[in-house]
């Protein structure tokens, strides 16, 4: 865990912020390459992705603050602005970015799936970098485990604080590290990398079948996230028997299934 990489005077470079920047850079470059491989105009892509990034960060931070208001922000409301320290809920960013995509499609009179297929084909690589940032910051950690995959975070880390604050405490305040937890951040980062490779290779061959890439991404990530939530050990807002992310995952899964059905129905029929 290296939340702060280095500091020069008042400027501190944090791992989470750096990973966010790298995720956007790699995602943007991958989208440009896909445009070139499919003879699409990439000139408007940069401005679109910039707006998507800003809206995604805003939505992700808003969702995280709402979910953790009592525990983290009620006594320190100015901490809402410290996104460099982590604390983003992916689904909040996805929903906010979806509104921007819909508005963009309406203004420029483009088919919505024409845009979402391209964007969602590269989102997993950005998300993978984001989860690496979570790991280096120490947030979004997993449940306590004694298996070989367990990772112990240092004192003052989110996992350490949660275990010290438990009733009864799981570790003493003098402990130098937390109990080992499942590295859910790395598991999700690896899964997103695999998903990116699959969609990146699929897009040039099937981009004309509008809605296919969108449906594949939504179904795949929703299933992945639903399962990952069972491994998470950080505080989660519950909605009945599920966490809030699992509840959203079920809705995303249904939406993805509709996208796949649309893509299949709209596909040109073979002679």
- Rough outline: globular
**Largest sheet: spatial strand order:** 1-2
- Domain module tally: 1
Structural class determined from secondary elements: mainly alpha
Number of DSSP-assigned strands: 4
Q: Which strand-content bin applies to the residues?
A: under 5%
Profile the largest sheet.
Answer: 2 strands, antiparallel
Which blocks of ≥5 consecutive residues have pLDDT under 50? none
Distance between the termini: 57 Å
Helix content: 55-70%
What value does the average pLDDT take? 87
Q: From the alpha-carbon coordinates, what is the Rg to the nearest angstrom?
A: 20 Å
The helix count comes to: 9
User: Can you write the helix and strand succession as a string?
Assistant: EEHHHHHHHHEEH
Can you give keywords for this protein?
two-stranded antiparallel ribbon; 271 residues; 5% strand; mainly alpha
Protein architecture, described:
The chain is mainly alpha-helical. It is built from nine helices and four strands, in the order E-E-H-H-H-H-H-H-H-H-E-E-H. The strands form two sheets. A two-stranded antiparallel ribbon has the order 1-2. A two-stranded antiparallel ribbon has the order 3-4. The radius of gyration is 20 Å and the shape is globular.
């Amino acid at each position: 865990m290296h939340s702060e990489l280095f500091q020069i005077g008042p400027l501190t470079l944090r791992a989470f912020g750096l990973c966010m920047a790298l995720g956007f850079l790699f995602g943007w470059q991958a989208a440009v390459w896909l445009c070139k491989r499919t003879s699409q105009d990439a000139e408007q892509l940069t401005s679109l992705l910039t707006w998507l990034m800003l809206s995604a960060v805003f939505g992700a931070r808003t969702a995280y603050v709402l979910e953790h208001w009592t525990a983290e922000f009620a006594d320190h409301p100015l901490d809402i602005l410290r996104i460099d320290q982590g604390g983003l809920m992916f689904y909040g960013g996805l929903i906010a970015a979806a509104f921007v995509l819909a508005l963009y499609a309406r203004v420029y009179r483009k088919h919505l799936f024409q845009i979402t297929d391209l964007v969602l084909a590269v989102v997993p690589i950005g998300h993978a970098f984001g989860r690496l940032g979570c790991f280096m910051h120490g947030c979004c950690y997993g449940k306590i485990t004694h298996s070989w995959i367990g990772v112990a975070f240092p004192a003052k880390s989110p996992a350490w604080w949660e275990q010290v604050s438990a009733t009864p405490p799981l570790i003493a305040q003098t402990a130098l590290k937390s109990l080992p937890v499942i590295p859910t951040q790395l598991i999700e980062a690896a899964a997103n990398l695999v998903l990116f490779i699959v969609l990146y290779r699929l897009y040039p061959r099937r981009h004309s079948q509008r809605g296919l890439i969108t449906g594949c991404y939504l179904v795949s990530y929703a299933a992945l996230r639903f399962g990952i939530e069972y491994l998470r050990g950080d505080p989660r807002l519950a909605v009945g028997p599920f966490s809030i992310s699992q509840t959203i995952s079920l809705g995303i899964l249904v939406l993805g299934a509709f996208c796949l059905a649309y893509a299949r129905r709209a596909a040109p029929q073979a002679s």
